[in-house]
């Protein structure tokens, strides 16, 4: 897959201001560094759409880093204060004021203006990020759904105007569901790492139905094993996540033709993580399951060929 330079993408998007170009380039670097599957899928978009996707990813990643990587000694109050500052900078940028020195804010505010994204979608996202500073678990599926709405569903809604659709109102629920499906996949893949951070993103009521609690998950993490009850609980949650993917899938056909290959690729690769989890016997508490590189290329290669054909056909 031949890479295209960041400069060429910015040129295609009509982004000419030097400060904006630097801001978008930083967001692109964040996407390339941390979102391997997501970044690979983004390569299937037309070049003019890619900077906006990088900006949305970069902003979300920056907020997530405030929660998890601000510093080992940072208190809850300090993390919340930095998130509050980020939110205020964003509101100022949406109002046309100088967003300061945060490139992710500069880029995402420009993306919102260019693509007509509803600025109100960023408030629930930041609310969920604040929850991460003090919430360590979710007693019920309903409680987790509240968090996931802000952390994932609204991301799908933010991305939708960039991808384009002739029926955005009909596509919106599917876009939100796809964001949730990706997030739930991350929760299942990263359950061990999240435990190390003191959090569990699997609903306690559904775990309890299989005789599983936080203590048993931690025991498995420490012993580097997976107890049968945990396997059954994870198999149930994988099946429930697959159902979310099924709700999301009809929305792909509602997207602009030139965006469908990108989303189909991400849909297939992220769904493939669930396949790898099952194939590994649900051994996710002491290892990170990934889709093999050969599988990623097998999916992305034909998708790229189809995307190029779609762009250049009469």
Give the topology:
Blueprint: H1 6-13, H2 18-34, H3 36-42, H4 50-69, H5 76-94, H6 103-115, H7 122-131, H8 141-163, H9 168-189, H10 191-196, H11 204-208, H12 214-223, H13 228-248, H14 257-279, H15 293-312
Helix pairs in contact: 2-3, 2-4, 2-6, 3-14, 4-6, 4-7, 5-6, 5-7, 7-8, 8-9, 9-13, 9-14, 13-14, 14-15
What does this protein look like?
This protein is mainly α and 314 residues long. It has helices at 6-13, 18-34, 36-42, 50-69, 76-94, 103-115, 122-131, 141-163, 168-189, 191-196, 204-208, 214-223, 228-248, 257-279, 293-312. It is globular, with a radius of gyration of 20 Å.
Could you tell me the number of beta strands? 0
Structural class: mainly alpha
Strand content: under 5%
Rg from Cα: 20 Å
* Parts with pLDDT < 50 across at least 5 consecutive residues: 299-312
Please, what is the oligomeric state? single chain
- Rounded mean pLDDT is 90
**Number of helices, counting only DSSP H or I runs of 4 residues or more:** 15
C-alpha geometry: globular
**How widely separated are the two ends?**
23 Å
The main β sheet shows up as: none
Helicity range of the residues? over 70%
Pattern of helices and strands: HHHHHHHHHHHHHHH
């Amino acid at each position: 897959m031949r890479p295209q330079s960041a400069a060429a993408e910015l040129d295609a998007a009509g982004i000419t201001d030097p400060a904006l170009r630097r801001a978008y380039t930083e967001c692109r670097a964040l996407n390339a560094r941390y979102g391997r599957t997501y970044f690979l899928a983004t390569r299937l978009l037309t070049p003019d759409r890619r900077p906006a996707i990088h900006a949305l990813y970069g902003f979300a990643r920056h907020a997530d880093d405030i929660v998890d990587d601000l510093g080992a000694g940072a208190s809850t109050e300090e993390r919340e204060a930095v998130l509050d500052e980020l939110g205020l900078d964003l509101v100022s940028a949406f109002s046309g004021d100088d967003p300061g020195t945060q490139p992710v804010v500069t880029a995402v505010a420009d993306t919102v203006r260019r693509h007509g994204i509803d600025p109100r979608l960023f408030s629930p996202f930041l609310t969920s990020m604040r929850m991460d500073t003090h919430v360590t678990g979710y007693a019920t599926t309903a409680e987790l759904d509240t968090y996931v709405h802000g952390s994932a569903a609204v991301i799908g809604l933010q991305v939708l105007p960039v991808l384009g659709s002739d029926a955005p109102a009909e596509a919106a629920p599917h876009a939100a569901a796809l964001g949730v499906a990706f997030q739930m996949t991350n929760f299942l893949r990263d359950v061990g790492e999240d435990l190390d951070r003191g959090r569990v993103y699997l609903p306690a009521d559904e775990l309890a139905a299989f005789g599983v609690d936080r203590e048993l998950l931690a025991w498995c993490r420490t012993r580097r094993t997976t107890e049968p009850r945990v396997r059954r609980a994870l198999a149930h949650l994988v099946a429930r996540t697959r159902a979310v993917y099924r709700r999301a899938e009809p929305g792909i056909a509602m997207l602009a033709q030139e965006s469908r290959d990108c989303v189909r690729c991400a849909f297939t690769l992220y769904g493939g993580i669930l396949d790898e989890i099952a194939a590994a016997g649900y051994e996710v508490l002491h290892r990170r399951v990934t889709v093999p590189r050969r599988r990623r290329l097998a999916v992305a290669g034909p998708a790229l060929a189809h995307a190029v054909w779609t762009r250049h056909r009469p």
